[in-house]
Design a protein that fits this description.
Layout: H1 4-27, H2 33-67, H3 73-86
Helix pairs in contact: 1-2
Length: 87
């Protein structure tokens, strides 16, 4: 069974991949190399934004776990690993 964050991560990654494939098909091979470079840069920026959002989701999940507002054995196990590595 996939954890909540795994499912979110998979969904976001799938959306990024689909967006990249769609962008490639829209740009086609007739576009100049410079234009393709811009597209790749924007795609990379989009991936970076998604990674930042994933970090924010993780931080919020940790906050909710600590406050007792979220119950997830999978996330709690990860929290225990983090706590163990800090000592």
């Amino acid at each position: 069974m996939m954890s909540f964050l795994d499912r979110v991560s998979k969904a976001v990654t799938g959306a990024v991949d689909r967006s990249g494939r769609k962008q490639t098909s829209l740009c086609g091979s007739k576009r100049s190399t410079a234009r393709s470079g811009i597209s790749r840069k924007r795609y990379g920026e989009f991936k970076n934004q998604i990674q930042a959002i994933k970090v924010q989701i993780g931080e919020k999940a940790v906050e909710m776990l600590r406050a007792g507002n979220l119950s997830s054995p999978e996330l709690q196990a990860l929290m225990d690993q983090i706590a163990g590595s800090r000592s």
